[in-house]
Amino acid sequence: MVQTLDRLSSSAARIEGVRASDVQAGDALVIHTRNSTYVLHVNGDGTFKAEGGWFSREGQTGKRVRVAGCTFGGSVLLTRMLAAPGMFLEFDNHVRTTRIREVQHLRATLPDTIH
Question: Does 9 map to a domain?
């Protein structure tokens, strides 16, 4: 079956995953791919502090990066999708992960009272 751009864009809203609008500063995403585990700490400016996977192997742990989006392996990039099982994550430094197996969104929590 041939995938048209219209068909892909209409199905994008139904993809189960974590979108840019789902996260806030202090959150973390734990992304398990076929070959690695990445942890992305959400900054308040659209960037992430990246750990694991390529960043650990290349001595780039803690590097601030942007997520370009996710793809199913082709050239169609879902720019608002941060991570979704079955997709590949692409960073703005041109690093692309292996296929994502699982995503955990860890919400930052604040104490109920400040002493």
Answer: no
Tokens 């994008």, residue located: 12
Q: Are 44 and 64 in contact (CB under 8 A)?
A: no
Which distant-in-sequence residues (6+ apart) come within 8 Å of 68 by Cβ?
Answer: 77, 79, 90, 91, 92
C-alpha distance from residue 114 to each of 70, 106, 108, 110 (Å)? 39, 22, 16, 9
Question: pLDDT digit string (tens) for 20-70?
Answer: 999 999 999 999 999 999 999 999 899 999 999 999 999 999 999 999 999
Which helix H or strand E contains 40, and what residues bound it? strand 37-42
The residue written with tokens 């308040």 in the block is: 44
Whether residue 11 is contained in a domain is answered as no
Name the residue range of residue 43's domain: 18-106
